[in-house]
Amino acid sequence: MTTRVQPSGIPICRPGFEHINRFWDKRRNIYTAKLLPGEFYVTSQQEAIATTLGSCVSACIWDEKTGIGGMNHFMLPLTEKDKHEIKWGQKSDISDANRYGNYAMENLINEILKCGGNRKNLKAKAFGGGKIMQKANQIGAKNAEFILDYLDMEKIPLLSHDLGNTYPRKVLFIPKTGKAFMKAISDLHNNTLMNRENNYSNIIMKSPIEGDIELF
């Protein structure tokens, strides 16, 4: 499949992903979409997707036959108890729901299928769930448990994973090849990641989410 590009040379993204920050990775010679918490990205083109994880988890899902795939970045799993406490309404910002694991997974897989992926060909890799904040010492473990249970329940083979432990991670995923690269961050020179996750966690707890999610 030929990569469709804008006049600037950046591959044309699927509708709905225009807000995702993309840049040219000189080291790997590929355009890369950079995800923040609550975001996901799907592509059928020769692109990479990258993010940095603390207690959050990212699932890399792709169709091994077509190379269509994507990645998400979620902060919390959503239990049945939480689900019943949320009052759903109308809201256009889908990232409000994607901060929760089950909606992040549903939206990612749905978009891959809409893009032309076949469910029977889906494969997965998963990363994150580290214990990096004392305040949220169980969040990482719960996220890791959630993604393992979810993929098992949906019968999507998990080919590799790096979950748990006490270190943050940088992850880069290339859907076309199914290759994922992970770097453990053993020494944080600043508190940017921890502050971001802490602030994001506080926003989640204070702000109820609204929106309609199409389930598959």
**DSSP helical segment count:** 5
Query: Mean of residue pLDDT?
Result: 82
Tell me the major beta sheet.
5 strands, mixed
Rg, Cα atoms, Å: 16 Å
Overview features:
60s Ribosomal Protein L30, Chain: A; single chain; five-stranded mixed sheet; 26% strand; 5 helices; disordered C terminus; alpha+beta; 10 strands; 216 residues
Describe the structure.
The chain is an alpha+beta fold and 216 residues long. The chain has one domain (28-57, 70-206): 60s Ribosomal Protein L30, Chain: A, CATH 3.30.1330.200. The chain is 25% helix and 26% strand. The chain contains five helices and ten strands. The protein has helices spanning 80-85, 95-98, 101-114, 139-153, 192-206; strands at 21-25, 30-34, 40-43, 48-53, 57-63, 69-72, 122-128, 158-163, 169-174, 179-184. The strands form two sheets. Strands 1-2-4-9-10 form a five-stranded mixed β-sheet, with no helix packed on it. The relative contact order is 0.20. Residues 81-94 and 200-216 have low confidence and may be disordered.
